[in-house]
Amino acid sequence: IVIAPTGKDGNETEVRTIQSVSADGLELTLDTPLNHTHHGVTEVFEDGQFIEMRAEVGLLTHNVVVEGQLLQSTNGYERLGADQYGAHILIHRQGSHPTPIRIEHTEVRNMGQAFRLGRYAIHFHLSADMSGSYVRRCAIRHSFN
Questions:
Q1: Most buried of 58, 99, 105, 111, CB within 10 angstroms?
Q2: For residues 60 and 11, what is the distance between their CA atoms, to the nearest angstrom?
Q3: For residue 81, is pLDDT > 50?
Q4: What is the largest CA-CA distance in the chain?
Q5: Mean pLDDT in residue range 12-20
């Protein structure tokens, strides 16, 4: 999982692995303790309205994985995106009848192409009306663009 920062320092994002979940589903045990405080508060205003403020938590791993290739560097160490030129998923409408594209619960990693316009990990290109299409509940990790 990834836990977003709740303070002013955007570098306090933390990645951890869930080791176990309590029987009631309310507590997680992580592989290592968190390094930073991630606040969870409810701010109540005079008129009775309130705002829930908590760290965002994202699921990074999924059963379906689309992955670009990691390249070997010249010194023998594996280096993520040695040339920053990964694969990409390009959705392009053909003809007058668009086909809805649905990508869900998928992990996309080591994808996209640096410094190239439109070479994102997932890109709907000149699609016009793509009603019914979506990308949701996905994790896009280590994107080059």
A1: 111
A2: 18
A3: no
A4: 64
A5: 93
Parallel, antiparallel or unpaired: strands 40-44 and 134-136: unpaired
How far apart CA 50 and CA 133 sit, in angstroms, is: 34
Q: What is the DSSP string of the chain?
A: -EE---SS-GGG-EE--EEEE-TTS--EEESS--SS---EEEEE-TTS-EEEEE--EE----SEEEEPPPEEPTTS-EETTTTSB-B-EEEE--SSSPPP-EEESEEEESBSBTT-TT--SEEEES----TT-EEES-EEES---
**Pair 67, 111: CB distance under 8 Å:** yes
| Residue 102 C-beta-side C-alpha neighbours within 13 Å | 3
Which tokens sit at 61?
């791993």
The region, left, alpha or beta by phi > 0 then psi within -120 to 50, assigned to residue 136 is: beta
Q: How far apart are CA 18 and CA 32, in angstroms?
A: 9
Rounded to whole angstroms, how far apart are CA atoms 39 and 123? 34
Confidence of residue 35 (pLDDT cuts 50, 70, 90): very high
